[in-house]
Task: inverse folding
């Protein structure tokens, strides 16, 4: 039995921030891939593609609010059932 293995990858392309009054709004496209398994020989990469928005209020903080929407790639039926997860977050520098 192995000690555990993981593979993680992330690539994104961001737009320049658009100035809207005192706010900053940006968008991005991304590709993620990864898996975790008991050992390296058991790894199977799962991937998704998605898009996101970043909203910055510079008067409050240097961190942006983010919303990402991901679409799974491939033929994994379990991934299709969880398709199009929408996530929200905080604390990503613009």
Result:
């Amino acid at each position: 039995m192995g000690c555990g293995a993981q593979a993680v990858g992330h690539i994104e392309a961001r737009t320049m921030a658009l100035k809207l009054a005192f706010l900053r709004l940006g968008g991005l496209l991304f590709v993620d891939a990864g898996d975790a398994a008991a050992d390296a020989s058991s790894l199977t990469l799962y991937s998704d593609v998605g898009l996101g928005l970043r909203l910055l209020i510079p008067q409050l903080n240097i961190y942006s609010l983010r919303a990402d929407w991901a679409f799974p790639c491939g033929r994994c039926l379990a991934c299709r059932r969880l398709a199009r997860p929408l996530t929200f977050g905080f604390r990503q520098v613009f």
Summary: The beta strands are 5-14, 18-20, 23-37, 46-56, 63-72, 86-93. The radius of gyration is 17 Å. The CA atoms of residues 16 and 29 lie 13 Å apart.
